[in-house]
Design a protein that fits this description.
By secondary structure, the chain is of the alpha+beta class. The protein folds into 3 domains: 90 residues, Rossmann fold (3-Layer(aba) Sandwich); 55 residues, ATP-grasp fold, A domain (Dna Ligase, domain 1); 198 residues, ATP-grasp fold, B domain (D-amino Acid Aminotransferase, Chain A, domain 1), CATH 3.30.470. It is 27% helix and 27% strand. Strands 10, 11, 12, 13, 14, 15, 16, 18 and 19 form a 9-stranded antiparallel β-sheet that branches. The protein has a 5-stranded parallel β-sheet with strand order 3-2-1-4-5, sandwiched between helices. α1 packs across α9, α2 packs parallel to α3 and α3 packs antiparallel against α4. The protein starts with 9 loop residues before the first strand and ends with a strand.
């Protein structure tokens, strides 16, 4: 007999801010989600009915956590995919599927996947170590990305000259040609257990130049409609080719010549979709839960133009976070603050985000810039 939705036993690997927002949406559907995280004070700790302190990179810990679950999902790619594969073999539903996770965790395999399925992406070369750079044929400047272990701007180096490779990684990497970028954009797409697919509207991103993390995001995009349609269609082609269940964030480059290249993808709720909690009829978190439990996809339409500002830890401050000018920001209409409950702030750590809704995108952007320059996370 098929289980009642509210009786499903669901496990989540990772207890950070993405898990925290997933749990908040899960409460609306009365879904019970257990969480495992290596940090005893993880943001999810006090929002879940069951918290397991354990290493999601450890095979035995992941298997023990998931073996009695109906469904296991993730909030972070760097988990033990071999254990998830074993759970899947033993009847546990694992989303995203372990085969998808293994592919996406390796940026080299990602690039080969794009080529195989004729998905436009930056020209690249795969190397094993630093010595291979000189024989790669790549013309500087270009980017070096670690094949595994990099995220949020970590694991990426710009190589400006072949004469000085002192700071280059001496590990398996992707060498990627520099793109002539006009804008960085993202599309979040979902696919449920029945194969039904839905895409969210295109968003545009601006990055912190020092940390290389998304700091400022706005939606809807200002790109021509045909280019937005092209980007959404690329996301659909990718998730169909992967045959993946859940949420997939596809980050892309919109080039100055009008081409769109796929940069990277993440098989989980993503920073570029936080605004959907208030700005869209269905949030990316609800959509992920709908997908993995077999519910129909929700309406992804936009309620109102929005801007999302990441709250990053101020450089030079480490310790218990203090949110300066929080009261001033809360006076503004259409402002929604999400603090992640992290006990310690440090340089550029993601401590929260603010979503701003306004009748026009211009008004939302103006408030977003004010918040970016006013609300500070210090110790």
């Amino acid at each position: 007999m098929k289980k009642r939705l509210q009786d499903l036993s669901i496990g989540l690997l990772g207890g950070g801010q993405l898990g925290r927002m997933l749990l908040q949406e899960a409460a609306n559907l009365d879904l019970k989600i257990a969480v495992m995280d290596p940090s005893e004070d993880a943001p999810c700790r006090h929002l879940t009915f069951e918290f397991v302190h354990g290493d999601f990179r450890d095979f035995d810990a992941v298997y023990a956590f998931g073996k009695d679950k109906d469904i296991v999902t993730i909030e972070f790619e760097d988990v033990n995919a071999d254990a998830l594969e074993e759970l899947e073999k033993n009847g546990v539903q694992v989303f995203p599927e372990p085969r998808v996770l293994k592919l996406i965790k390796d940026k080299g395999l990602q690039k080969q996947f794009y080529n195989k399925h004729q998905i436009p992406t930056a020209p690249f070369v795969l190397i094993k170590n630093k010595e291979d750079i000189l024989n790669s044929g790549m013309q500087a400047p270009f980017f070096q990305k670690l094949r595994t272990g990099g995220y949020d701007g970590y694991g990426v180096r710009k190589i400006t000259t072949l004469e000085n490779l002192e700071h280059a990684f001496d590990k398996p990497s992707v060498l990627e040609a520099t793109a002539d970028i006009e804008k960085e954009i993202s599309v979040i797409v979902s696919r449920n257990t029945q194969g039904e697919i839905a895409t969210f509207p295109v968003v545009e991103m601006e990055f912190n130049p020092e940390s290389n993390m998304v700091q400022f995001l706005f939606a809807p995009s200002t790109l021509p409609q045909e280019k937005q349609d092209e980007a959404r269609n690329l996301a659909v082609r990718i998730i169909e080719a992967l045959k993946m269940t859940g949420i997939l964030a596809v980050e892309m480059f919109y080039l100055k010549n009008g081409e769109i290249w796929v940069n990277e993808m993440a098989p989980r709720p993503h920073n570029s979709g936080h605004h959907t909690i208030e700005a869209n009829f269905t949030s990316q978190y609800e959509q992920h839960l709908r997908a993995i439990t077999g519910l129909p996809p929700g309406n992804t339409g936009t309620i109102m133009p929005s801007v999302m500002v990441n709250l990053l830890g101020e450089k030079g401050y480490t310790g218990k976070p203090v949110y300066h000018a929080l009261d001033e920001v809360l006076k503004l209409p259409g402002v929604y603050i999400h603090l992640y409950g992290k006990s310690t702030t440090k340089d550029f750590r993601k401590m929260g985000h603010v979503t701003i809704l306004a009748p026009t995108l211009q008004e939302a952007k103006e408030k977003g810039k004010y918040i970016l320059n006013t609300l500070r996370v210090k110790a």
